[in-house]
Amino acid sequence: MRIGALKLKLQLFCGDAIAIGPGKADLLDAIARGGSISAAGREMGMSYRRSWLLVDEMNRCWSAPLVEAHPGGGKRRGARLTATGERVLALYRALERELESAAKGGSFAALAEMIRTEPVHTP
Fold this sequence. Notes:
The protein is of the alpha+beta class. It has a domain at 11-96: Winged helix-like DNA-binding domain superfamily/Winged helix DNA-binding domain (Arc Repressor Mutant, subunit A, Orthogonal Bundle). It is 50% helix and 15% strand. The protein has five helices and six strands; from the N terminus they run ββββαααββαα. It has helices at 22-34, 37-43, 48-61, 83-102, 107-114, and strands at 2-3, 6-7, 12-14, 17-20, 67-70, 78-81. A two-stranded antiparallel sheet has the order 1-2. A two-stranded antiparallel ribbon has the order 3-4. Strands 5-6 form a two-stranded antiparallel sheet. β3 and β4 form a beta hairpin.
């Protein structure tokens, strides 16, 4: 999220892996909308392999998987967020809103008054 000159990128780590960040949260949203990892990847302009690797990494970072996939045919095919996935996504989005709200005053406001819109060019 970008607020004037301030760009906030909320990432939660699991060891060296990003358990969730803005892109992974968007991927979860797309899976929830489309019911498919491949459709979510296409919507976001990434390959199925890339989207699957991100889902796999998220599933390995949390206390329970965030996405449940059912390959093949039938009524259960596709992918959906688990209850844990829905909760993690909701809490992450809430934390984003809290962070954005906190950044709108105080220290940020003071810094925003002091920063230039563009760097000064040196001769």
